Structure formats: structure tokens, C-alpha cells
Amino acid sequence: MNCPPTKAAKVRPPLQGNPRRTRQEHSQEIALDYVELIAELIATTGAARVTNLARRLGVTHVTVNRTIQRLQRGGLVNAQPYRSILLTEAGRKLSEESRRRHEIVVEFLKSLGVPDAVAHLDAEGMEHHVSRKTLSAFVKHLERCGRHQPPQ
After folding, report:
1. Other Cβ atoms within 10 Å of 12 Cβ, number
2. Whose CA is closest to 67, among 92, 76, 15, 117?
3. Average pLDDT of each block of 10 consecutive residues along the chain (152 residues)?
4. Which pLDDT score, from 0 to 100, does residue 28 have?
5. Where do the CATH 1.10.10.10 domains begin and end in the chain?
6. What is the pLDDT of residue 152?
7. Other Cβ atoms closer than 10 A to 63
8. Residue 116 to residue 107: CA distance in whole angstroms
9. Cα 123 vs. chain centroid, distance in angstroms?
10. Which among 117, 109, 30 has a CA at the least distance from the CA of 76?
11. Exposed, middle or buried, 7 (CB in 10 Å: 0-12/13-18/19+)?
12. What residues pair up with 86 in beta bridges, in sequence order?
């Protein structure tokens, strides 16, 4: 694998943290996890219900209900009491984008030699925080390695 050479720095530059961006990403992370899981449950079982979400996420049904209400206000899901939760078009698109980001991060980690199971675990969460520029660099790296699959 050809990696570009790096110049050794004599003095470490200060960290360039952006707390506002990080807080925004954390707030969206939960929404992304929910829409991804709802899409997965619909695809595998035909329905996404509060009890299934609570069990899979390890939270109470009260927590799920509150989050679903927030997602509904955000236009990502349609939900009625005691019914299956459905993704809106915006929710489906967000789910697909999040799933694709996850797949790219997994493939990138695997291209570095990270074992498959570890790559999947580590990618969970990372995909929410990787910038578009970094994700694009991951894709270019994967293309150079012959590992990138175009979006389906």
C-alpha cells in the first residue's frame, strides 16, 4: 500500500477541535442510529415496533417513544400508537446515506488490516463523525486498493 510521506513536525500544533460541530454530530447520531435500525427491522421482519427498537438499542420503551416523537417532528418517521413505525422518504434517504457511510468506513478499516468483526464494531459511530472530505479520501484510498464498490 502506498502511503504519502509525512513530514515530521518539530512542534506539535494545537488540536483544532470544534466543540459545536461535535455536539451537532452527537445530536444527529441518535437519529441516524434509529432510522438505520428502523429500516433494518422493516427489511428483515416487515415491521419496526417500539418494543423491537427498545430491545435492540438496550433502552426503555419510554426512551424510544420520546425519540420517535422527535423523529416524527423532524419529518423522518410516521408513527401512531401501537402501530408499526414507518420511515418517510426523508427518513429512508437518511438511513441509506448512513448505511453507505458505515460501509465505506468498514471497508476502509478492513483495507488497513483491521479484522472484519472489529471493523464493524469500530465503524459504528465513526460514520457519524467523519466529514465528507475525509469520507471522500477513504473512497479514493479504497479505489486505489481496488476495494471500493459503487453505491447500489
Report:
1. 6
2. 76
3. 58 62 68 93 95 95 95 94 93 93 93 94 86 92 78 47
4. 79
5. 24-91
6. 44
7. 15
8. 9
9. 8
10. 30
11. exposed
12. 78
Question: Contact at 8 Å (CB) between 112 and 70?
Answer: no
Going by C-beta distance under 8 Å and a sequence separation of 6 or more, which residues neighbour residue 17?
Answer: none
In three-state secondary structure terms, 22 is helix
Topology of the domain covering 96-145: Diphtheria Toxin Repressor; domain 2 (1.10.60)
CA 5 – CA 101 distance, rounded (Å): 27
- Give residue 15's region: left, alpha or beta (phi > 0; psi -120 to 50): beta
Question: Residue 82: what pLDDT?
Answer: 84
The angle subtended at Cα 91 by Cα 122 and Cα 119, nearest 5°, is 10
Length reported for the chain: 152
- For CATH 1.10.60.10, list the domain ranges present in the chain: 96-145
pLDDT of residue 145: 86
CATH class of 24-91: mainly alpha
Angstrom CA distances, 65 to 46, 72, 114, 143, stand at 20, 10, 36, 41
Cell of 17: 477541535
